[in-house]
Design goal:
Strand content: under 5%
Structural class: mainly alpha
Largest sheet: none
């Protein structure tokens, strides 16, 4: 009677189920000889060794994957920290720019108020200048009138003097 291991042996991978099947195989001591039993033990040892090798390769693969995961986590953590620093820098810049904007808005308001004051002052001075020009025109008219009256009076005096009055 061939063992279940003999039937599945070859290029088939050793699985847990196969190992358990080998361990659970019942022997009929009367029908088996020492060579068959030795082959079974050797197959069981091979199976155990292959199982152990698989376990080691899985552990190595697990360690490799954990290292890659740790490296990926570190890169992500570094990226998050870098982004956090950049965000803080942008927030600081934003606060600074908002402060500068507020200052510039205050300066603009002051400049607009000052411009309004200067415009009012300019308009008052224009009005004062206009009134001075009007007053000057009136004085010129009065001066001409007085000058003409003075000339007439002088002419009348000369005329009266020459007539002997």
């Amino acid at each position: 009677m061939a063992s279940s291991f003999d039937q599945t042996c070859g290029e088939v991978e050793f699985t847990r189920e196969l190992s358990e099947a080998l361990l659970n195989e019942k022997f009929d001591d009367d029908k088996r000889d020492g060579k068959e039993l030795a082959k079974y033990v050797k197959d069981l040892e091979n199976c155990t060794m292959k199982w152990h090798e698989k376990k080691i390769s899985y552990l190595l693969e697990d360690e490799r994957l954990r290292s890659l995961l740790d490296l990926a986590e570190k890169k992500c953590t570094d990226a998050v920290n870098s982004l956090r620093r950049e965000r803080e820098a942008w927030e600081t810049l934003q606060i600074s720019l908002l402060g500068k904007l507020e200052q510039l808005q205050e300066e603009k308001l002051f400049a607009e108020q000052r411009a309004s004051e200067l415009e009012d002052d300019f308009n008052k001075k224009l009005e004062y200048n206009r009134s001075l020009q009007e007053y000057n025109s009136e004085l010129e008219i009065d001066f001409r009138t007085l000058n003409e009256a003075s000339k007439r009076a002088e002419m009348e005096r000369l005329l009266a003097k020459s007539m002997g009055i």
